[in-house]
Amino acid sequence: MTNTASPAxxxxxxxxVIASHNKGKIPEIAALLEGRVARLTSAAExxxxxxxETGDTFIANAELKARFVAEATxxxxxxxxxxxxxxxxxxDPGIYSARWAEKPPSESNGGSGRDFAxxxxxxxxKLGDTPDRSARFVCALSLCWPDGHCETxxxxxxxxxxxxxxxxxxxGYDPIFVPDGHDRTFGEMESAEKHAMSHRAxxxxxxxARCFES
Length: 214
Known about the structure:
Blueprint: E1 15-18, H1 25-33, E2 39-42, H2 58-73, E3 77-86, H3 105-108, H4 116-127, E4 134-144, E5 150-161, E6 177-179, H5 191-197, H6 199-212
Parallel strand pairs: 1-2, 1-3
Antiparallel strand pairs: 3-4, 4-5, 5-6
């Protein structure tokens, strides 16, 4: 990761590739960047495959993805890696947050995809009687250039896990996460309220201040 104590490289271009095949990320990131980049495209639009995420931290995986796409396209690339870290589980599921939602073949009934109701139940079962229900959502953002230089930041929001799950908004682990200072889960909040305080918003504030403001 680039040392955030050193002078940052300013983003001065008008094209940025989002290192993802998720079309929904383009408008979300455009809103978070507040029009600072004229043209955003996805890795899929450049026929760049998603690399295997072999890092052992959120930051390592974000940098791996951004650097891979920047090298493949010859354009600056932005990648994120995020998940939930549960104190009582030693930080799990962490970088494996999405993987925890994949049911084993014996329980999938031939289906595919991710089931976060299953993932949340795994968290509850593994915690058992552990009294510590504290957790944090983490988002690492990495902006990499084709020459290999990366600027990377990490945002987070802390809170408590609750059961049963509450709310149908949001996605992933949102229905069991109550941010500190609030009494509703992310799953019960409207998207604008959640995004104003989320780990992703925290990370983007840091990245914008570091690389997009004079």
